[in-house]
Design goal:
Layout lengths: L1 H5 L3 H12 L4 H8 L3 H19 L19
């Protein structure tokens, strides 16, 4: 698990830790990340998918660049 988690990007690791280890809700994680609940839910879904890929023999999908990390940058 640690090896798979270590190959993920910083944003993926952060959302997974907030939800998995800190046991925050998606709404609470969104507040910590300063994003909307919908954005946090999408990030969580994608992070879980990439974690599953990292833990399996399947090749990972190419990642798209992150366009913005906060609403203020939009």
């Amino acid at each position: 698990m640690r090896t798979a988690l270590s190959v993920l990007g910083e944003f993926d690791q952060e959302i997974l830790r907030l939800i998995g280890w800190e046991e925050l809700t998606v709404s609470e994680a969104a507040q910590v990340l300063d994003c909307t609940r919908a954005t946090a839910a999408v990030r969580l879904h994608r992070a879980r998918r990439r974690l599953a890929e990292a833990m399996s023999d399947r090749p990972a999908r190419p990642r798209r660049p992150v366009l913005s990390t906060t609403r203020e940058e939009l």
